[in-house]
Amino acid sequence: MAEIQINKLTSDQELRVPAALWSAATFTALDSWSQLVERIYGYRVHRFAAVDGKETVGILALAHIHHPVFGNYLATSPYGSFGGFAFSSIQARDALLQQAQTLANELDVEYTVARFIEDGNTPPASWIQNPVYATYLIDLPSNPEDLMKSLGSQQRKHTRQALRKGFKIQFGHFDLLDETYTVLSKSMHELGSPYHSKKYLREMATLLGDQLEFVVMRDASGSLAGSAVLIYHGDTASNLHANILRAYRAEYAGECLYWTMLEHYCNRGVRICDMGRSMNDSGNETFKMKWRPRKVPLAYWYNLRKGDHLPGLNQKNPKFQFAIQAWKMLPGSMVQLLGPSLIRGVA
Questions:
Q1: Alpha-carbon distance 66 to 80, whole Å?
Q2: DSSP-assigned states of every residue in 115-147
């Protein structure tokens, strides 16, 4: 093998992801995703390709996040579960990680985090693994009924009960933008978390085109009950967001929404549903495991330049508990006004 060369891409160069690396890179490696981050939040995305001869053997896209509350850092897959970092060899991986450290020194950031699927290998000496997240992959059959049969009896029962409650679910694009935003912002408020602006969703739909679908769920009377944002990449569909309003959770509305999306995927010929990341042993993980997915650990590798403590930007961090409870008590109008300025720092 020749020495691997790292090429930094200019703004007019496309980051080409080889087919062999696509499932690891995910949609967050797309230049359209980098453009979304730059247009909405003004954050620069630095893109690199590892080249062996004429072959691209690795890619890296790092967003530079600079926020007054959540710090100054570099991250792959901003606002996504994982991706933006993929490699075909340990040599390519380490060359890209060394490039990440060089960039971190140039920008004087506090830390760098690379998010990718756990491959069982040990991080280089200067990197620390923080194994708190996993993603959940469902291998989809061509016939939705085969998927239903694979579920546990209790999950089938709850799903069928929900399907009889008269919920109506619609898939679309810009026509569902307003309702999707209304549900997501309200649901995240109920959970104690800020959410992006409607402009963020509009720009995402513009840049991703037919790779994106909005989903809206209404009850029998027509009131909004849930929504989702789905992104298609290769043979995989990712649930970027899938939320149910609190008033409908006891009615197994989540089962109805998820089943309808899975059925939709099967009918479209999608092979894999990525349910998105959750923290280990969380309530979200409990819900997702009912669908009998493959739990896939995520490797969140950190290079700490300043200090020796992991940042812990997640809802289980004790120092955020008061803020979460206080956020739930704010009026919706204030949440929509302040939310985007907060969430922009939790990339």
A1: 17
A2: EEE--SPPPPTT-EE---EEEEEEEPPSSHHHH
Phi/psi of residue 187, each to 5°? -65, -45
Tell me which residue has tokens 């923080």: 130
How far lies 46's CA from each of 12, 13, 338, in Å?
12, 12, 28
Please check whether residue 252 is in contact with residue 159, taking contact to mean a CB–CB distance below 8 angstroms: yes
CA distance 47 to 32: 13
* 3 Cβ contact partners less than 8 Å away, ≥ 6 residues apart: none
d(CA 288, CA 53): 43
Q: Global pTM?
A: 0.93
Of the candidate ranges 26-40, 42-56, 154-168, 310-324, the one whose mean pLDDT is the lowest: 310-324
pLDDT band at 326 (very low <50, low <70, confident <90, very high): confident
Report the share of the chain in percent with pLDDT over 90. 80
- Start-to-end CA span in the chain (Å): 36
- Nearest-angstrom CA–CA distance, 81 and 25: 11
Query: Alpha-carbon distance 105 to 128, whole Å?
Result: 17
